[in-house]
Design goal:
With about 325 residues, the protein is of the alpha+beta class. It has a domain at about 35-100 and about 125-220 and about 270-330. It contains nine helices and eleven strands. It has a six-stranded mixed β-sheet with strand order 3-2-1-6-11-10, sandwiched between helices. The longest helix has 23 residues, at about 5-25. The radius of gyration is 23 Å and the shape is globular.
């Protein structure tokens, strides 16, 4: 074997090993290296702290926020999560969010029907917020120093799944209704026919690409609502008095029956997420890059290496229901699933 032939063979072997190594580092969607697909969660917290320690503290802090911000324009009373999608698959960045449609409906349920903490899981009329409305409020919150964000760079396939979900979420699915017609804290919009709260809407998009990070457990409020502070249609027409809520100084912690003695409830709280981002800028320990957009602090992570199943259904069957979901099914004339 000549020296030249040996050199050629060694070169080809090295090239093959390099190619294999590169493929191992980027197992799917090679074109992602040249395309930029990003999902950004835009966090707008409450103007004053929200205290989830107990039903009593939550009620008092909510009332305090309401009274202090009564005349404030462009305000999300209980905070908000919006989403910005940036991709070559879009003509321009897409801003979107889920919100309730009529504040009067919420007020009627609390003051007239006296549903108490049933309002946390009630299905309200909802809508996907218009792009220009979100962009305007994002700028307002930025000026108030009340905006923070987290951006994930994602694979093209994940963005395709998110955009498929976004379209289907607004399509008519049952009784000429779309999931986006409903807003509520008990929903998870990956389940068939369900609407969303603002954070569930955003986190579902992350979930489609297995992008919900371990630190999200720190952003979650997970409680059991005592049945004695849930009223209205959720509890045989019982009217909940304010003083009953004020005297309820702990969440349910007994061994009672689910949906009889208590109702499970969880939410990703935008105010907790906002504070967590601020804390990361002072003491980074979660592996994000620290970034800014104007005066808004943010975090950035390249998540293209996270594995996901492109064949997994966009929408799934809910494995179990709860008091709030069962009432929602009745409202839209859907049999219990």
């Amino acid at each position: 074997m000549t020296l030249r032939l040996r050199i050629l063979i060694v070169t080809l072997i090295a090239a093959g090993l390099l190619s294999s190594a590169l493929q191992a580092q980027h197992p799917s969607h090679e074109h992602d290296s040249s395309e930029v697909h990003e999902i950004t969660l835009l966090l707008m917290p409450t103007m004053y702290p929200l205290d989830w320690t107990s039903p009593s503290s939550l009620y008092k802090s909510m009332l305090h926020i309401y009274m202090k911000t009564l005349g404030l324009k462009d305000n999300y009373l209980l905070g908000h999560v919006a989403v910005r999608l940036n991709s070559p698959l879009l003509e321009e960045p897409l801003y979107t969010a889920q919100s309730s449609k009529k504040w009067q409906e919420r007020i009627d349920m609390v003051l007239k029907q006296r549903v108490g903490f049933g309002i946390l899981g009630a299905a309200l009329e909802g809508r996907v917020e218009p792009v220009e409305e979100i962009k305007h409020k994002v700028e307002v919150y930025k000026q108030r120093n009340k905006l923070a964000f987290i951006t994930y760079r994602i694979q093209r396939g994940v963005m395709e799944r998110i955009l498929t979900f976004f379209k289907a979420y607004q399509d008519k699915m049952h009784n000429d209704l779309s999931p986006s017609d409903f807003y509520g804290g008990a929903f998870w919009p990956r389940y068939h026919y369900e609407g969303a709260g603002c954070s569930a809407f955003a986190f579902t998009m992350l979930d489609l690409g297995k992008l919900i990070p371990p630190e999200a457990e720190e952003w979650k409020v997970d409680v059991k609502i005592p049945m004695n502070i849930i009223g209205g249609k959720f509890n045989n027409g019982k009217k909940i008095k304010n003083r009953t809520i004020k005297r309820t100084t702990s969440w349910y912690a007994g061994n009672g029956s689910k949906n009889t003695d208590y109702v499970e409830y969880y939410v990703y709280d935008p105010s907790i997420m906002f504070d967590w981002i601020i804390a990361q800028h002072s003491n980074p320990d979660a592996g994000y890059d620290l970034v800014h957009e104007g005066n808004a602090p943010g975090l950035y992570k390249d998540a293209r290496n996270i594995e996901f199943d492109p064949e997994e259904p966009i929408f799934m069957q809910r494995p179990d229901t709860n008091l709030f979901i069962n009432h929602y099914y009745k409202r839209i004339n859907l049999e219990k699933m």
